[in-house]
Amino acid sequence: MASYLRGIHTPHRKGTKNSPAVRMDIPQRVTIPMSMHIGKPAVPTVKVGDLVKVGTKIGDADGYISSNVYSGVSGKVTKLTDYLMHNGAATTAVVIESDGEMTIDESITPPTVNSKQELVEAIKASGIVGLGGAGFPTYVKLDVDPGRIDYLIINGAECEPYVTSDTATMLTRSDDMVDALNALNRHLGIKQVIIGVESHNKKALEAMKRMAASVDGFSVKVQSLPAVYPQGGEKVLVYHTTGRKIANNKLPIDVGCIVLNCTTVAAIGAYLRTGMPLVEKCVTVEGGAVKQPQNVIAPIGASLKDLFDFCGGLTEDPAKIIYGGPMMGITVANLDMSVIKNTNAVLALTKKESKLPKTTSCIRCGACINTCPFGLEATSIAEAYEKKDAAMLSELSVQSCMECGCCSFVCPANRPLVQINKLSKQFLREEAKKESDK
Fold first, then answer.
1. Consecutive H or E run containing 283
2. CATH of domain 2-12+109-274
3. E strand or H helix that includes residue 58
4. Are strands 280-286 and 257-261 parallel, antiparallel or unpaired?
5. Is-contact 233 128, C-beta < 8 A?
């Protein structure tokens, strides 16, 4: 299906690709939201005045699609507060004043794993979620019948401009990745692993090939992928590595694949070896307003201000602060926002970098359709949304849009097509809720 091979060539702008991950100074305060994953927010397990350490659980997963939350510093809980996430969702956050000691919780010990169920439960306990994007709880992906799994695909594509935090993982944490792969092979019976890395990322390709050569007992293939955005999208990655096509409203497991981000895999390996849950994240700090762009290891909950200060501060007031890359990232309101589990980059863009061009009328050129990985008709979707035609939006499969932004990127009229797709999907969700409430 040719539509699965479509995409665009974005400027790479990988200025930090050779930047080793540097651990930031201990922040005076962290603000840790209870919702850093797809699914229900965690329930706080601490109260004001409680003393916590690095690795202390401060939030319990609430239900199957949820995730535990842990402290990345030692200190005192000073507040449980309302917190508005970057996507507009309201949640509770735990505020911890650091004592500067980074004392590790005495309960930290490697988990005992002798079966598939114990592996799944261990990963559930770790608080690990998808660290490259949506933040889906990782244990849920792995809690499947092993007989359904033909391939484990490791996503090292990192196709967004600026972002290199996954590259830092591949260059320095191959031992953690091997530990994870051995456990997944032993307890889930995974025999075939494919690591997808874009062709221009030579050092990461070499590092992954060395790692693959060190693994015994199962196949690990490193595949050089075309440097075409959005190469890291799950459906695109599955097609380019296995040739298998994922239908609308289906998941990779429906075609025998599990996809995990490379940093997620490294986090699994580190937890199985040490017992330390997910308490920190490697973040690319970049953009024209950043004095010293670099990859930074930050405790979850550190403020963006602390992150930028560690990078020498800002050379000017940024016009936009973005979580993630410029294609799929989301603008944040202020520097008080926190580093969360799936923050892979924070960009501080200048006015010149973030200036939006003037929008004009659609010229019916079809560029948006020709570049969409799934061949969606962005112009027709926009017309249907303007008419609030739910039936037509469903027929046009707007819900399968991965929100990659290719359509907006190539539009000569500079129309906000991906934003319209997002609004269309929200409109359909609201209409479905109205129907269910009748």
1. strand 280-286
2. 3.40.50.11540
3. strand 57-60
4. unpaired
5. no
